[in-house]
Amino acid sequence: MNITDVPYWENAWKDAGNSSFLRNTQKAEPDRWFAFYNEVSDIYLSLWDHRDFGNRAAKLFLSEGLIRHGSRVLDAGCGPGTLAIPLAEQGMEVTGLDYSPGMLKTLRENAQTRKLDIRTCCQAFGEYMPEKKYDLVCAAFFPPCLEPEGIARLESWSDGWCAVMIGAGEISRPLHKALWQTVMNKEGNTEPHCGRFHLICLMGYLLARGRKPCIRYISQKYQIRRPFAEMLRFYKSYFSIFGCSDVETEQQIRCVLQSFSVPGSDEENSLWVAAGEENCIGVVWWKAL
User: Fold this and answer.
1) In the sheet that 158-167 helps form, which strands lie side by side, from edge to edge?
2) Which of 93, 117, 130, 134 has the most crowded Cβ, counting Cβ within 10 A?
3) d(CA 62, CA 141)
4) Per residue of the chain (289 residues), what is the pLDDT tens digit?
């Protein structure tokens, strides 16, 4: 075993992916994930509470010299604009790449509201071929990048820098955890592990390939306040990915949501609060060679 060899990290990363319940589901049931992203595209950004993270990441890229006003940036797996919108607000020429028409529709609507010009491309990550390379190619919480092939693809599109954002510790989301234990544990499926192991593999892999990765941590409080009906729609769609879409599952979701609802509020209009401890996000960037 030689941890300075590229094959060591390639194998370690592959093993991590093979043992990941979510990653295996994404590969085995791509149509279900596609349907999920389209169905919840209008509420996805608000439910994951990443707005502040996107602003802080964009400012970090600027302060570290990865980009400057007018730089060409590709946001791979952009979703509804977690990174794309803050980057455009900082004066970047942004392209958002995603295979979900619903996510890109929401991104365009958000951009129009803010009077931002963001180019969108509806294409699969493995099929995209840009006409010209970018100054920065970035991806946040994007599973296809959590493997050597994904990193190589990011680098092939960059004429400057690459950046990947990934969880760096245990994620504290009490509501999500309670729902997972209630709905999925009946099938013996444990809650998906945090991204810390992927972060370790990413850093080791880059170093073994002769890159010089930098890392900065962003702490973020997970706290959301949304209507009950909105949350019910989101989690019904989410658990249907795993084949849990019967009446019993919906009732289980309702019961857990009710336990987090504001007391005394009308169920369909109530607001709930799910708060956790500060979560740690790793921002890794390196010069593409």
Assistant:
1) 119-122, 93-98, 72-76, 134-140, 158-167, 271-287, 214-227
2) 134
3) 20
4) 788 899 999 999 988 878 778 888 888 899 999 999 999 999 988 776 556 889 999 999 999 999 999 999 999 999 999 999 999 999 999 999 999 999 999 999 999 999 999 999 999 999 999 999 999 999 999 999 989 999 999 999 999 999 999 988 665 577 888 899 899 875 555 555 556 788 999 999 999 999 999 999 988 776 677 888 888 999 999 999 999 999 999 999 999 988 887 765 555 556 555 555 567 889 999 999 8
Using the structure block, give the residue that is written with the tokens 């958000």: 110
Q: Residues 201, 9: contact at Cβ < 8 Å?
A: yes
